[in-house]
Amino acid sequence: MVSWGAQPQRSDRSNMRDNYKYSQAAQSIAGHINNDLTEFSENYDPFAPPVGMDMGGHDTYLMGPKAVMLDTFVVDLLHVDTSAQTFRLKLLLNMDWEDDGTIQPEVKAKRNLGRTAINMGSSNMSLTSGTSSGMDAYVRAASSDGASSSHQSGDTYRTGKYVLKREFREDPLATTWNPEIVLVNAIADEDPIDAGSKLHCVQMLSGRPVISRSILYQPECRCEFTFSNFPFDETDLVVKFSSNKWTSEQVNFLWSNRLSSLSNNNGNGNGNYNGRVSMAMGGRRKSYSLEKSCDASAIGGVGLSEFEIVKVRVETDEKDVNSMQRYDNAEGAFSQAHLIIRVRRDPYSYLLRVASVAELLMFLEVLSFLTDVDDVSDRFSISGTIFLAMVSLYGPMADALPKVSVVTRVDKWHLYNFWLLFASNVENLMAFMLRNMTDKKVMEFSEILLAILYLYLVVGNLLWFITPLYEREEYTRLVVWFEDTADLYRETFWRGMDRAMPWRRRGGRRDANGEAGKTKTFSVAGKTILSSIRVGKGRIMKKKANEKKSGAAAIKEMKKCSLEAE
């Protein structure tokens, strides 16, 4: 009998694969954290002074600028306005820096038979759940002496964590140093969302205590868009972080090694892909790298159908804001950290609603070539109606783009179609004017040739317009699906032929019982491998034949020399 709580048993291979995946992920995270820790001091210093609100505890001349480690996670891409060149997103920004003077080791009292009082030396310090003065006194004594064993009694123990000192606990934001980070290209002063933020806490980074601040933003930013390849365009949405108080000589913003490594290797990762489809996709889109830097629901956007995130990378820079270089007390350069989110427009909405209808109208223009030459009014009515319909389709597309002097891909496609319609109208007029000067058979034959030429130019313009679709995953999946379907139908056809005509059965086909012959039907990848093997074998056989020829020639030469010597 199977209990309700019983779980299905997994195979050993699945468990081994999961364990290997988890171990690889753990090793990768540990490597990134160790690289981040190189920017900080090696060990916690209990005697270090607090940095202070004016950075008095950090000597920039001896220690250099203070390192602030940044890490971010894109929660969702909410809105992209191409006309105003703005975008709104929700992201989580995490900042880590060291400030040993504001933290101390965490010490707790043991639960010893309900007793809440401990005796340290000559003083009695009550460590109840509601007070912490005795604990603070103990920690100060332990920190000042540097040897916790001489002060720590059997009733207390160190947890291995660190907490803020007592004088900084009530209002850490007002009493401790912070990087004063702002969003440079935000339209307005964006305040963090308190519900999803941790404005000040102490975290352990691979055993190293650091001050951490996690801020949830929902800013609306402005950046430059690219439209030259509309509607197949890709653009970089840039979020710029900087400080409005500390210069680059005082604070240096650094991205975590996790994000930096993704940017250096162009987002390559060991993703979990499925079958030949993902293998054929190549390096176009790496979902494994994306899920490290943005939410899975943000890939494509929740409530966002026009753009999808294809890559996230980071950069660091310095911006010189020295009061227009007019005054002697110039502020100098400020360190900046750029989060660059590459998004790609989904073109299928435009292709279905505008491009497909426009292309059908262009094909319909062929009827004007097949209309009687004498009926010039019918010809012009067809061409004129199609021309007006194309203009009405071009208007909504032009309104969706900002009023900038950029010739997009769809503009070139539409202008070429308009030029073909104009040439068709000119041909209608010329045919009407030359109808009495040319033989009727010659005129009909020339009209058919011109119609074929028109269709050739229209199809060529369409293929040029949709060329960027060949670089998308959907095209690769479609090609692989057609190849698999063709292989399936081919195999089904030959099986039917073998069953219907057994005397035509070949060794490479399967018989009625499903037994395989001497050879098997290969997939597309197998055929490619097989062809390469055949080519390699052919080269080897050719090389052996050449060696035999050279050997035979050498033997003949030796015999000739021996005869001459005799």
Total E-strand runs: 14
Mean pLDDT: 74
Which radius of gyration do the C-alpha atoms yield?
37 Å
Separate helix tally: 16
Distance between the termini: 99 Å
How much of the sequence lies in strands comes to 15-25%
Question: What proportion of the residues is helical, as a percent range?
Answer: 40-55%
Concise account of the structure shown:
It contains 16 helices and 14 strands.
What does this structure look like?
This protein has helices at 12-37, 60-63, 133-145, 148-151, 166-169, 172-175, 257-264, 275-281, 287-293, 348-364, 366-370, 376-399, 409-433, 440-465, 473-500, 524-565, and strands at residues 66-81, 86-97, 103-109, 117-120, 123-126, 156-164, 181-183, 193-205, 208-217, 220-222, 234-243, 251-255, 307-320, 333-345. The longest helix has 42 residues, at 524-565. Helix 8 packs across helix 15 (473-500) and helix 13 runs antiparallel to helix 14 (440-465). Helices cover 43% and strands 22% of the residues. It is of the alpha+beta class and 566 residues long. The model is unreliable at 1-10, 116-152, 267-286 and 508-525 (pLDDT under 50). Strand 8 (193-205) and strand 9 form a beta hairpin. Strands 1, 2, 8, 9, 10 and 12 form a six-stranded mixed β-sheet that branches. The chain contains 16 helices and 14 strands.
